[in-house]
Amino acid sequence: MVVRSTIMDTNSFRAEDADSLDNETRALTDKRERLLGESYRLFYRRPVHLVKGEGQYLWDASGKKYLDVYNNVASIGHCHPAVIEAVNQQMRSLNTHTRYLHERILNYSEDILGTMPQAVNKAMYMCTGSEANDLAIRVAQSYSGGTGIIVSQEAYHGTSQLTSGCSPALGSGQPLAATTRLIATPDHYRLAGKDVGAWFAQQMQMQIDDMKANGIKFAGFLADSIFSSDGVLPGEPGFLKPAIDVVHQNGGIFIADEVQPGFARTGEAFWGFARHDIVPDVVTTGKPMGNGIPVSGLFAKADVLAAFSDQIPYFNTFGGNPVAMAAAEAVLDVIRTEELQQHSLTVGNQLKAELSKLIDRYECVGDVRGAGLFIGFELVTDKESKAPNKALALDLIERLRDKGVLTSVAGPHGNVLKLRPPLAFQTQDIDWLVGALDESLQEARS
User: Which InterPro entries does the UniProt entry name for this protein (predicted)?
Assistant: First the structure.
């Protein structure tokens, strides 16, 4: 029996829901089923037909306005004028690949590397986060001479052959690579009272030892430092450092997957890994880098990258093209001029404080945690057992959708609301989100 994918199937439209749809929506879902591959999924029992976006808001075909509390791809806000203008201007002059000289890729590389630790000083570009992580795994294997990759228990790192083999969140229908090992999730909510840093470092060594016992040489640890697919688990700043020390002591490298926690999202630092005072060997990014324009990057220590790039030429046809670089430059400029890192910290703390008030009001609200505008809202059966309450979480997702708030769930049990709006999210949006959530919890309790 195939286990459903936590990131694809937990909050998805299913055929048995079709009879409840209005005629127009039913016609679209039927046409989609006829034309598109069966692997695709739609959100919600009653899918949303979106036609417009601006900042943190979306509108459907009927004109209903929604608050987007899920979409980190449009990182600085839907249809941001600065990105539209930059892309439009560059499209009018040139768009080609990186085997010709062009200033944009060089200027952007200087700029983005300036946000990294000094040791991370080389850049390469792709079109998707999957491609960036795929290349990062190849770099890790070249540098270490090994093949073994460690990821968290519910990690998602991409859809290529290599990355899907390191993405347990895709479900058992997508087998993991024989050289992949899963490390226990640093669930601070359930590990309360423990030294999570020491515990996680011990878990890391156990997985490396298991590889060795099975004739697999360790290559590296690939992680999103906020463990978003595992249920949004930021932890205390610095707790990751002992585990990364273990990685290096065993000859592996640390790949920081910054697709989700990067670009000022956590507020506490520009990059998610920087919360932990660690220097990754490789950093990967995805489409939030260009506010949804297909662009991604790999940034690495020169000696680590050299183990791969001195032996193998790499060419991603339109990775790093001038239009994509224009979008990426615009995103960096907006983050600075609109002071979005500080904004993320300030508004994120305000949002977390308001959400935390619901813990005392509802026995089913177990934990509220996060960093900046990246918050996990965990639903449980009761506070004593901390048993995951997936059914309630899925019910709340649907109720929130009806109240114009769009989000989804995360974690191995699908019981954590993943609250991750575009950074355009404002203080005045907190009342809409928290009010809708409060009302939904009351309705579910009655």
Answer: Aminotrans_3, Aminotrans_3_PPA_site, PyrdxlP-dep_Trfase, PyrdxlP-dep_Trfase_major, PyrdxlP-dep_Trfase_small
